[in-house]
Design a protein that fits this description.
Mitochondrial phosphate carrier protein 2, single chain, mainly alpha, Mitochondrial carrier fold, membrane
Length: 394
């Protein structure tokens, strides 16, 4: 009968050299004379851990990735090192950063914007976002969920460029007016004035595309298939002024929105850094962009609340204003139809949309500034100098 378990001699032969104790066949402590040719020489292999090995590999990959990022950033910084702060080239670079920040993010949230606009025009059209997307997808396909993405991309790219580039210009302009000594005293007023001035110009570029976007999103089926087809349709039917009939309410929506967006962002970032240990310069690129996103999200929530009534009115005016109807008369008629409560239709959706949107915009914009070698926006104020008095006779 064959034994079920291996004998001690078989085990000893199989695991010779693996035990921390002396082999039985070694006798008084001398190493075993018989050695299997298939056994590994453990003295050549130190203790090994799969976890440590994985950590080392990840660390090497991370170091290689960071080296590539640093190489690309230093290359951009080398070229931007020739760009002086507050020079025309600096403002041009910030304008391009604004194009990326606003154009990409607004286009990404087009499905949210579509439902918001339709519910603002007719609050009974959909009960919620998911029901709305389901109905639109069944009726028009996935493309229908992104109705209006083209005028959104064009319009908010133009607006973002003028807004961010203009803000950098006007912030420096008004800061120079109050003087360096008074800047920290009146900084909130400088932020408000700079952002308002930039948005006043940016909305002139946005307005035609916003008119096409709103009409495209609130007419079923959409009145035009392409952005410039929609612009031509409006001009042929209403003249060039038809593209700008929503400019005043757009200013009413966007200027308070942008003032809150920039001033509250600067304040939020300053507060975040004031609570963090050390100075802003002590933190790396990832940490600074994370602070930018957090400050931007806080600012976005405040922006959504402040500008929402005007946002509803813009949607209503672009969708229902009759040709030749005066702005005041149209606004009065719409308000009588929807009342004060109607001005807040779609607010929860807009808070989520604008909060995420604004956070991502500031993160993209500030990361672009880091990539170009520029300092990020906002930060803790410099510490106040302590004046030490002298005792009499000293």
């Amino acid at each position: 009968m064959q034994p079920v378990f291996p004998s001690p001699q078989t085990l000893d032969h199989a695991f010779a050299g693996c035990s921390p104790f002396l082999s039985r066949s070694s006798g008084s402590g001398s190493p075993s004379k018989r050695r299997s040719p298939w056994l590994a020489r453990h003295e050549l292999y130190p203790a090994w851990s799969a976890v440590d090995d994985a950590k080392n590999k990840v660390a090497k990959l991370s170091d290689a990735a960071m080296a590539e990022v640093e190489k690309a950033t230093s290359k951009a910084s080398g070229s931007s090192g020739k760009i002086e702060l507050y020079s025309p080239q600096f403002y041009a670079a910030c304008t391009f950063g604004g194009v990326l920040a606003c154009g990409l993010t607004h286009t990404a949230v087009t499905p949210l914007d579509l439902v918001k606009c339709r519910r603002q025009v007719d609050s009974k059209m959909y009960k919620g976002n998911f029901e709305a997307w389901g109905k639109i997808a069944r009726a028009e396909g996935l493309r229908g969920v992104y109705t209006g993405w083209s005028p959104t991309l064009w319009g908010y790219s133009v607006q973002g460029g003028f807004k961010y580039g203009g803000y950098e210009f006007f912030k420096k302009f008004y800061g120079d007016l109050v003087g360096e000594e008074n800047f920290h005293k009146y900084k909130t007023a400088v932020y408000l004035a700079g952002s308002a001035s930039a948005e006043l110009i940016a909305d002139v570029g946005l307005c035609p595309f916003e008119a096409v976007k709103v009409r495209m999103q609130t007419t079923i089926p959409p009145f035009a298939k392409t952005t410039f087809g929609g612009i031509n349709h409006i001009i042929e039917k209403e003249g060039f002024g038809g593209l700008y009939k929503g400019l005043y309410p757009l200013w009413g929506r966007q200027i308070p929105y942008t003032m809150m967006k920039f001033a509250s962002f600067e304040t939020a970032v300053e507060m975040i850094y004031s609570y963090l240990p050390g100075q802003k310069a002590n933190y790396g690129k990832g940490a600074q962009t994370a602070v930018s996103f957090t400050g931007g999200y806080i600012a976005g929530i405040l922006c959504a609340i402040v500008s929402h009534p005007a946002d509803v009115m813009v949607s209503k005016l672009n969708a229902t204003r009759q040709p030749g109807e005066a702005f005041g008369a149209a606004t009065s008629r719409i308000y009588k139809d929807i009342g004060f409560g109607g001005l807040w239709n779609g607010l929860p959706v807009r808070i989520v949309m604008i909060g995420t949107l604004t956070g991502l915009q500031w993160m993209i914009y500030d990361y672009f500034k880091i990539f170009m070698g520029f300092p990020t926006t906002g930060g803790a104020p410099p510490p106040e100098e302590k004046i030490v008095g002298k005792l009499p006779g000293q």
